[in-house]
Design brief:
With 203 residues, this protein is α+β, with helices and mostly antiparallel strands. The protein has eleven helices and five strands. A hairpin with a 2-residue loop joins strand 2 and strand 3. The longest helix is centred in the N-terminal third of the chain and has 13 residues. The N and C termini lie close together (6 Å).
């Protein structure tokens, strides 16, 4: 079981994509990168108050260079990191006291999370996932697609409980980009959810 999002989860997704012949075939004509935006919500607070989930989330953020993390400063998520949780943005966060941070998260409200987002970037290329990594606010703004929504909706997708297209059509996830291209490659998008994401069980 992996925490979403975490360094372990990213590695497992990349490996699952390499192994899935169904995905490679279904997405052979797909190309395009995504800037993915995860908005904090009540489920995010519940999950991050659990030590093992917070530890995984910290490993995800630590994949980003400290200098890049500084770009979260003066954003709603940056304020939560520094002012509410006492996590400095510009230094390594490997040694963050997870017990203390998880306890502080449990005191936050959804109002505290207003506007708070975490970002990651994924590059899909003809049946492969060439890259997937956390990024700072303002990075990869020229991505072919932007996909954003609440943390709870992202969990539904990456767990395989609901595919990306259905989440977009129900407005739980929002897509900016060439929707006709996405629909043309619907099989690849759905197979990504069912064969790759769902192949990595999450907490």
């Amino acid at each position: 079981m992996a925490v979403f999002p975490s360094k372990e989860w990213v590695g497992a997704v990349l490996e699952a994509a390499k192994k899935s012949e169904k995905y490679q075939e279904a997405a052979k004509d797909w190309e395009g990168d995504f800037l993915c935006i995860i908005e904090g919500d009540e489920e995010f607070l519940r999950d991050m108050s659990r030590k093992e989930v917070m530890k995984g989330f910290m490993s995800f953020l630590d994949m980003m260079p400290a200098e890049a993390r500084k770009r979260y400063a003066s954003t709603p998520m940056g304020d939560i990191f520094e002012k509410k949780l006492g996590i400095p943005l510009g230094v390594s966060i490997k040694d963050v006291n997870v017990d203390k941070v998880s306890a502080l998260v449990s005191r936050l409200s959804t109002e505290d999370l207003k506007g708070a987002c975490t970002y990651f970037w994924a590059d899909f290329w003809h049946g492969s996932v060439r890259a997937m990594a956390p990024v700072a606010p303002g990075e990869h703004e020229n991505a072919a697609f932007k996909l954003w929504g609440k943390y709870s909706a992202w969990k539904m997708m990456v767990s395989g409980k609901q595919d990306t297209i259905r989440l977009i059509m129900s407005n739980k996830l929002k897509l900016e980009g060439d929707m006709s291209y996405v629909m043309k490659n619907m099989k690849g998008v759905i197979t990504l959810t069912k064969e790759v994401f769902a192949g990595v069980p999450i907490e």
